[in-house]
Amino acid sequence: MSNNVNDINNNIDNQGDNEVSLREIIFKYIIHWKWFLYSVIIATALGYVYIKFSTPLYKIETDLLIKDNKGTLDGQNDLLKSLDMFSSDKIIDNEVQILKSKTILEKVVRGLNLQTTYYTTKGVRKHEAYDALPYKIELLQQQDGADLSKVYTVKLLNEQESEVNGKIYPLNKPFKLDAGLVSISINKTTPQALSIGKNSMEITFVDVDDVVDRLSKKININPVSKQGTVLIITMEDALPERGKDVLNRLIFEYNKAAVDDKNQVTSSTLAFIKDRLEKLQEELGSSEKKVEDFKSVNKITDISSQSQIFLQMVQENDAQANKINIQLSILNNLEKYLHSVRNSQVQVPSMLGIEDPTLVALVTQLYDAQTKRLSLLQTTPETNPIVTGVNDQITQLKSSIIQSVQNLKSGLQITKQQLDRKSASFQSVIGQVPAKERGLVDVMRQQEIKNNLFTYLLQKREETEISLASTSSDSRTIDDAHSTKKPVKPVKNITFLLFFTLGLIIPAAIIYLRDMLNFKISKKSDVEKVTKAPIIAEISHSDDSSSLLVVSKPRSMVAEQLRALRTNLSFVMPGATQKTILFTSSISGEGKSFISLNLGASLAMSGKKVVIFELDLRKPKLHASLEIDNSKGISNYLIGEVGYKEIIKPIPLQENYFIITSGPIPPNPAELLVNGKIKELIEKLKQEFDYIILDAPPVGLVTDAQILGEFADTTIFIVRHNYTAKSHIHAIDNFYRRNKFANLNIVMNSIESGVGYGYGYGYGYGYGYGGYYQEDSSETKKSFFGKKKRD
Fold first, then answer.
1. How confident is the model at residue 437 (pLDDT cuts 50, 70, 90)?
2. What average pLDDT does range 205-218 have in this prediction?
3. Any idea of the CA torsion for 520, 524, 526, 532, to the nearest 10 degrees?
4. Closest CA to 621 of 641, 592, 642
């Protein structure tokens, strides 16, 4: 049960820490709201300037369909298609590369005269012009090594002359400029061309290759899907009309190049067909003359009917002979198989063509027996009676098959001999005709071949000519190029949002980096993360120069916080015998003298009798701030010059409050503190005073504080906000863990009001609500950074 309670408490503590941490993080940024406000205002103004001076870009788009089923004659299986001279399918990636090829783009650039750029001046900016131009300037021939970045100011003087950079040149006639050979012509379709003498424009020329490279980067071509053949072609341009002209011209040049390429192949094919027809015509005439001459010489009208009967008889006889030969070959293979040592295999030779049913049945039985034998051997040994019986059956079958094969072969041999004798008699008869028949067949065959080929090519010539006349592109424009009505870049809403976000990010990043690079104590958690030494008070920063602030301004916020420290001392020093309080710090300037002096005054105001030791014998400050004589002090007492009664001096501004000043600065302060008299003095003072406050030097610089630590009942380390280095907290933690100082506690000093320290309510636990504390409204002198050091 107790474990569960502890877990719940731990969870509550962790949850509280998380809430505090989140609140600190948020407040750390909110406290600098002016930074964010100014940054957002400036960033938004910069966004407005960016939009104002950015060139708006419009998106231009066109859709192109690549046809995927095409032939020269609507899919007919003609010669050209059969020869793969035209491909019916196109690879989309290849078409994309063709569309973006330098050759096509260069034709677009030259066709639209994009190497010439026109500018007009409106307001403080130059604006590029494209459509409705009063005149057209064309760079006919570029000068080698010419500086094309030069700007030319062109104005029409009249319908025959123009002015270029102050010089007069004729219209519609080439003339020489630094860029090269140039021609200017009036655009009579443009109303502005009529305002002669009022249409001055600035002109620059661009190298064609540079324009091509620029277009290649601007044009994006993407298929609508992986399986589709529709290409979506887009580009962004400041001038929508120019962008539309570029895309339309791109498709035009692409289609024209495809048609030209197709016509080139078709034309060469047509020329080839015509050439072959001319040659075949000569060869066909020669073949027909040979047939005519052969028949005339041999006086032949038609000998085909005379020899046809003999030819048919020979063919039938040869067919039977071939059948007999196949059967003999199969029987020979079967004999080899039966006499083979490896005839235990299941595969028997094919019996295709064997018409003897007895032999076929025996071979089938042999196949079944061998299959059965192999099946038995998988589970039964060779010596098994069943296997032995199957082996005997196979042997008997083989013997029967061999006998049947020999009988069948004998019959086939006799039939073969009869067919051979018959074939010889036919050959002797038909051998009397061959000379005339073969001669006529040969010449007629050549004639027929050439005649067929000639007819075929005549047909293909007509098809090719029709194809050439009806050639169309392999693509179709689905939508002509069209532009968006509003610019796609810059988008005002997104641009303002980006600059607004940037206005928030920049101060946040600065605050974050400043916090990351800050090596000073900036919040309470910086101390608590390093050491478990308790923080018993948090004192706000004050610009008041008064040494005893609790006396001069008892209702001030700092005075109230010092009273809170006084209250906490009752918990830190509960025993009546615990009277000695040691104040020290890591370095000088952290405010330990101010805190110790004012805490003593606060204790004295509560009716306690208090004495404070000015033990910083090297750099004493208390007597000077209180304007008390320091001719005799603790240093005189430690060397035995005076008694302790002579060095105790009252502080004039506060009753019951006394001080032992440092006295003259000795050459050996540390040695004086260890001679034993300081302990004796403290013991005597405990008899007379309720509290003894030891204002020691910084522990990080000298060893005096550690020497005095053995006389203290409690030790208070002063840590100053935005002044004490974070690394010093590790030294304090080391002192705390090793008990080098008795009852060590920490006081956070000089906390800037409103910096988000502590829990985010001003400086700490909520002090500083306006109107509750009495503060001096008069301005006090501040340092350059708006804060005053105190020690």
1. low
2. 92
3. 130
4. 592
- Distance, C-alpha 337 to centroid of its chain: 73
Q: What is the DSSP string of 172-199?
A: TS-EE-SSEEEEEEE-TTSGGGGSTTS-
Token pair recorded at residue 178: 């630094």
How many distinct helices (H) and strands (E) make up the chain? 23, 21
Report whether the peptide linkage leading into residue 490 is cis, meaning its omega lies within 30 degrees of zero. Answer: yes
Name the band, by pLDDT with cuts 50, 70 and 90, for residue 383: confident
Amino acid type, 716: I
Using alpha carbons only, give the angle 596, 601, 604 rounded to the nearest 5 degrees.
125
Strand order in the sheet with 175-176: 135-142, 180-186, 175-176
Closest listed residue to residue 291, CA positions, set 279, 302, 281 = 302
Section 756-769 average pLDDT: 39
pLDDT above 50 (res 130): yes
Q: How many CB atoms lie within 10 A of CB 410?
A: 9
Nearest Cα neighbor of 717 from 551, 561, 706, 518 is: 706
Contacts of 280 (CB under 8 A, 6+ apart): 450, 453, 454, 457
Give residue-wise pLDDT tens across range 664-719. 988 888 888 888 888 899 999 999 999 999 999 998 777 888 888 888 999 999 99
Q: Answer whether 0.90 is exceeded by the pTM.
A: no
In order, the DSSP letters of 62-108 are EEEEE-----TTTT---HHHHTTSS-S---HHHHHHHHT-HHHHHHH
Q: Tell me phi and psi for residue 783, to 5 degrees.
A: -75, 180
Q: Angle CA(480)–CA(482)–CA(483) in degrees, nearest 5?
A: 165
